Please model this.
Amino acid sequence: DAGITQSPRHKVTETGTPVTLRCHQTENHRYMYWYRQDPGHGLRLIHYSYGVKDTDKGEVSDGYSVSRSKTEDFLLTLESATSSQTSVYFCAISVRGPGNTEAFFGQGTRLTVV
Amino acid sequence: SQELEQSPQSLIVQEGKNLTINCTSSKTLYGLYWYKQKYGEGLIFLMMLQKGGEEKSHEKITAKLDEKKQQSSLHITASQPSHAGIYLCGADSGGSNYKLTFGKGTLLTVNP
Model:
């Protein structure tokens, strides 16, 4: 699993409150990703990072921000949570080697906005 | 941006039958990933294809990337209930940033 840990695993929050999800890796991989998964939509990319302080937007970045101040941590922040952001959030890292590449996922964070 | 279309969206088969899931890209594929997910759980990496014509197998699952690198197929031989789940294909954008996007998934049900 390439040492990926997501926290928290479950969270219930109220509309309008800020929420931060953390993705932590232990192996100093460069590429990290945040996705949300909703029925009928598959995995949709929110933001991704290709190095410390290097991030870019994905398909559904509105309402989300990210930060990567050190290699091992990639934080996803919902500035003001809305019910439409109720979802399961997955973090992933891409492990690239000669002739082969794999992407490993965390176990997911189930977020409910009430 | 690159879009991935998976077909079918869902599939119900009888145990022992073969099946195929397709993944078609709007752009050339630099890397194509296949994952399996059990409901409510994380994603399990199956295999990754990079070269046109490349074919890989994992137990009874075989995936192939076509020569033009715009379509991949995942084939399961003699399906079992343990194969049930959601199959997702993902694509690497290439370049230096390696944006990784996914299709909507195919829900596979295998009836005993």
